[in-house]
């Protein structure tokens, strides 16, 4: 499911032709941009254009590494999964709001159409045109709102369901991230303890040497 959502986002931002990049970028490690270009059978510039478009929305992160021999930088990329899902969630919230508004409007307002030109007019506009089509001069007929409403309601249920699944994926992702953070914190603590112990031992050792050094001149004085 997550992969489908990531594809949906890429298609939304860049277009259908960029869809396969979603799978490549959904990785724990950053991926070499030349490898992405090769796998997608695109030039490096085409690949970068796609990546920049996604980066404009903050949904990918990159790191760069310098090629020691050639002296240029290569970028490595990966999708920020949580940010991407939250982006999709926001889009779905807006879409649901839009559908609800359309439903409300269809429930209370009449619409008119010219069947020949496939044009639709609100009641005010139809009145303004004297219920005659400005394109062909034909007479408007009343739009069947019930059919439109049925479609809109179906769409609302579908979008609501998608929204629900995206929210679940967001929770999963957050849980994964907090586990990862906990692991890092634990590792850092263990490392910090080791370093502290090492320093303590070094200090102890240094004190011993100092102690010895201090002793020597006192011996000399006695001589
Ligand atoms: Zn017409």
The helix tally amounts to 7
Q: What ligands can be seen in this structure?
A: zinc ion
User: Quick one: how many beta strands?
Assistant: 6
Secondary-structure-based class equals mainly alpha
Q: If you average the pLDDT, what whole number results?
A: 92
The global form is elongated
Q: Distance between the terminal alpha carbons, to the nearest Å?
A: 86 Å
Helix content: 55-70%
Radius of gyration: 33 Å
Biggest β-sheet, characterized?
Answer: 3 strands, antiparallel
Low confidence ranges: none
The domain tally reads 2
What strand order characterises the main sheet? 1-3-2
Order of helices and strands, N to C? HHEHHEEHEEHEH
Strand content: 5-15%
Which secondary structure elements does this structure contain, and how are they paired or packed?
Elements: H1 2-14, H2 21-25, E1 31-32, H3 33-40, H4 44-55, E2 60-66, E3 73-79, H5 81-108, E4 111-114, E5 119-122, H6 123-128, E6 141-142, H7 145-222
Antiparallel strand pairs: 1-3, 2-3, 4-5, 4-6
The structure holds zinc ion (ZN).
The site of zinc ion (ZN) has 8 residues, from loops.
Describe the fold and architecture:
There is one protein chain. The protein has 223 residues and is mainly alpha-helical. 67% of the residues lie in helices and 12% in strands. It is built from seven helices and six strands. A three-stranded antiparallel sheet has the order 1-3-2. Strands 5-4-6 form a three-stranded antiparallel sheet. Strand 4 (111-114) and strand 5 (119-122) form a beta hairpin. The longest helix has 78 residues, at 145-222. It is elongated. The protein starts with a helix and ends with a helix. The model has no long low-confidence stretch (mean pLDDT 92). Zinc ion binds next to loops. Residues 114, 116-117, 119, 133, 135-136, 138 line the site of zinc ion.
């Amino acid at each position: 499911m997550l992969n489908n959502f990531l594809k949906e986002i890429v298609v939304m931002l860049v277009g259908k032709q960029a869809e396969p990049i979603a799978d490549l970028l959904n990785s724990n490690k950053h991926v070499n941009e030349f490898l992405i270009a090769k796998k997608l059978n695109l030039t490096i510039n085409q690949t970068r254009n796609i990546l920049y478009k996604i980066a404009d929305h903050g949904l990918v992160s990159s790191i760069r590494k310098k090629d020691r021999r050639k002296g240029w930088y290569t970028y490595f990329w990966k999708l920020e999964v949580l940010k991407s899902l939250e982006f999709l969630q926001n889009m779905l919230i807006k879409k649901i709001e839009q559908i609800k508004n359309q439903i409300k409007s269809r429930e209370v307002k009449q619409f008119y159409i010219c069947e020949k030109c496939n044009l639709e007019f609100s009641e005010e506009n139809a009145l303004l045109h004297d219920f005659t089509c400005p394109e062909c001069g034909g007479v408007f007929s009343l739009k069947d709102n019930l059919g439109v409403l049925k479609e809109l309601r179906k769409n609302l249920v579908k979008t609501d369901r998608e929204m629900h699944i995206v929210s679940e994926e967001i929770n999963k992702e957050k849980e994964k991230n907090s586990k990862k953070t906990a692991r890092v914190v634990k590792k850092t603590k263990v490392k910090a303890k080791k370093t502290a112990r090492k320093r303590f031992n070094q200090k102890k050792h240094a004190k011993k040497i100092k102690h010895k050094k201090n002793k020597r001149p006192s011996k000399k004085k006695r001589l």
